[in-house]
Amino acid sequence: MLEKLCPRYRAESIFALEPETLRAQGIKGLILDLDNTLVEWGSEIVPAELVAWVDRFKKAGFKLCIVSNAVPQRVEAVAETLGIPGLPQATKPFKTSFKRALAILGTAPEETAVIGDQLFTDILGGNRMDLYTIWTPPLSETEFLSTRAVRRLERLVVKRFRKRGLWG
Ligand SMILES: [Mg+2]
């Protein structure tokens, strides 16, 4: 169980991720979390830097899809701005939306990375699907009250990972 919470890779931010590096690992598709990964929690504001980052991956031939537990309105707004599909109310870590996303992307699990800031939704769900899981630190400290409780658990898990040398 604990291993399923451990990301395969950790990046400082999405902007530290390069199409060339991921392609060299056989990755062709990206499943992207929305809140605190692409944009600040609860925000619809899409920075120019994010548009440019998504465009670089598109131009490199990657398929991208947002998979978010958030409500449809915001997910669709951001997805539309970025020109990529978006699946709202995804109920991560359950597999349903990850499977739908793979169908949309047209990629196999081993060709697909999931990028997100939460161990108990993005990383657990991605690992259960055998995707390449990439964790990035949350963009803001604002979150649901329920998420804040989960963060406490995340800190305990990370402590265990550190002890085992899995978290650097
Ligand atoms: Mg998130």
CATH topology term: Rossmann fold
The side-by-side strand order for the widest beta sheet comes to: 1-6-5-2-3-4
CATH class categorisation: Alpha Beta
Give a quick account of the main beta sheet: strands, pairing sense, barrel closure: 6 strands, parallel
**End-to-end distance, in Å?**
20 Å
Short description, anyone?
The chain has helices at residues 19-24, 48-59, 72-82, 96-105, 119-128, 145-163; strands spanning 9-10, 29-32, 63-67, 86-87, 112-116, 132-135. It is an alpha/beta fold and 168 residues long. Strand 2 (29-32), helix 2 (48-59) and strand 3 form a beta-alpha-beta unit.
Essential attributes:
168 residues; alpha/beta; Rossmann fold; six-stranded parallel beta sheet; binds magnesium ion
List the helices and strands and how they pair.
Layout: E1 9-10, H1 19-24, E2 29-32, H2 48-59, E3 63-67, H3 72-82, E4 86-87, H4 96-105, E5 112-116, H5 119-128, E6 132-135, H6 145-163
Parallel strand pairs: 1-6, 2-3, 2-5, 3-4, 5-6
Structure overview:
This protein is an alpha/beta fold. It has a single domain (2-163), classed as HAD superfamily/HAD-like (Rossmann fold). Helices cover 40% and strands 13% of the residues. It contains six helices and six strands; from the N terminus they run E-H-E-H-E-H-E-H-E-H-E-H. The chain has a six-stranded parallel beta sheet, sandwiched between helices. It is globular. The relative contact order is 0.21. The mean pLDDT is 95.
